[in-house]
Amino acid sequence: MVWINDIITGILIGGLYALFACGLSLMFGVMKVINLAHGDLAVVGGYLAVGVITVTHIPVLWSFVVVVPLMAVLGYVLQRTVIQAALNRSILTTLLVTFGLSVVIENGLLQFESANSHSLGVGNSIITSSFSIGSQITIAYLLLLIFVVAVVVLGGMQYFLSRSRYGRMIRAVADDQEAAQLSGIDYRHVFGIAAAIAFGTVALAGIAYGMYSQFAPTTGTDTILLFAFAAVVIGGLGSLWGTLLGGVVLGVSQAIGAQISGSDEFLAGYIVFLVVLVLRPQGLIARRSTS
Amino acid sequence: MTALAETTGRSAEKYRVTRSRRNVAWTGIGALVVVVVLALFPYIIGAGTETIMVQGFIILTLASMWNLLAGYAGLVSVGQQVFVGLGAYFVLALNINRVPMFSALPVAAIGCGVAAIPLWWLVSRLRSGYFAIATWVLATTVELIIEKISSLGSGTGLSLPHTPSLSSAVLEAYTYWIGLAVTVLALLAVYLLLRSRLGLVLTAVRDDEVAARSSGARVGLARMIVFVVAGIGCGAAGALLAVSQLIVQPSAVFSVQWTAEMAFAVIIGGLGTIEGPILGTIVYMVLQQTLASYNAWYLIILGLVAIVIAIFARRGLWGLVDDYLHVRLFPVGYWLWDPAAAGRSRSLRFGRRAGGKHS
Q1: Residue B186's closest CA among B134, B247, B113?
Q2: Which pTM value belongs to this model?
Q3: Which end of chain B is more exposed for a tag (fewer CB within 10 A), N or C?
Q4: Residue of A nearest to B142 (CA)
Q5: Could you report the predicted ipTM of this complex, rounded to two decimals?
Q6: Cα(first)–Cα(last) distance of chain A, in Å?
Q7: How many domains would you assign to chain A?
């Protein structure tokens, strides 16, 4: 029964990983940019939440109302300036620039916020309590909440991309930038919107991670970026629901690894990632046309 | 175009295609003098400076390898720390089995080259950004596996158990000379590699991959060779790290900071030139030493400088030097040598697209 409990927890954590991964996937799908600073942005979201809560005394669960729009604006601005400038040069330059951003953000946080870990909502009853099914299975409310949020966000993104006017523009630009531009779409603005969505979702994921675990300046590169990337590759490049599946597979393999030995948690996740990379490089769900 | 129009008026035999407008021998002699002076350093400078110089050698070796990967083969690896770590651990493992640490160094470097082959097989199916993060995941995975081996000190690492019984001054000097040798060999290897057929294939791929492939260039093989050579070089640097610090700790040798440092040195100095990493390493070491007391500031400043240079001066500081002075210390491309224009800066360059900082 311990196994079942752990696997359920692993599935729910998969939602968190998918939340981390969807922004990475979106930015690659639309602009062909792999944002190596993606994980650090989640940590920035976490730190922003800490700051916002200290200043405004807003309830922890509502901190995203302030942080997500802030990060979305940051995403739009960064995309229109630094990332677009790098994109104008070459794809290689975007890698160099986002890697530079990653190092700058991480060390900036180390310099200004020290290496201490932070967590969000310690003592909040919704965040720390759990409920039981039967005598053996215990599920944390928080993990269930995060999973539901992840499904809602992914569903919302899917709906936005397939139905809305902006979604149509994003897909058009992703498919053929020049043809979209000929049809009167300002691709730079569309790129900005996509980056805003990516930054917003990763901030949300950062806050969720802060409630579930704790974060420090190095968390962004140590864990978040690599987990997000593993989820994207396992699920299949460019498929949003594949990303959720990838996150769940990663979460479950980590849970199983942790059962074998406490230190094998991360290793098990990465080994599953490498196995998928070798046996099915296109991911579990093959690429679709959406984003 | 104007240069071509001029040529029609004169007889063609005056022109020849050359690698350099000056005699390469002069550069060779210059390089030899620099190496000899550097080799005499232990008799002149103190032990503290020697340690800093060895650190510089490590960064320069790493930067040259990263330059080969990113600047010539288009492979942005964010996981090169895997070879730094493996090189250090090979030295540790050999030293535990009573192999003297200095003799373990070349074996460790070759071992890293061998290890690079299966690692390449894993990541080679990915391109561009996905390749970058996949190498990173691979580095973390290798670190986690090595941390499971208790005879290598698990998660905390080990000191080298069999260090030579020499006075610390002599040991430091030996380490310095080994470091210098590793760096010179690395630079020489990169130079010769780029002048070979492989260098020609890489240049062709950089300019137009589709055209290169359709002309029969074996792009995959070329990239694999570069990855293996970079593995050997970074492994040698990692082995040098173990020899100079006499201790191997997994979190230190497998740190992504190594890749950050090598990448920044290359970007600042000049991506895609042999001189760039040398200049970049000097800038890096100066910044690091001046800002050493301000903790993380040197990485913040280096990162910002690297971002600005990557966007606004893609060929880095050496690119700026080259634009104004037209100097190429290690010529790997080809030039059209025009006797009439010799001395003036009006040669057509073939190896690298002429002019156009923003091309």
Answers
A1: B113
A2: 0.86
A3: N
A4: A267
A5: 0.88
A6: 40
A7: 1
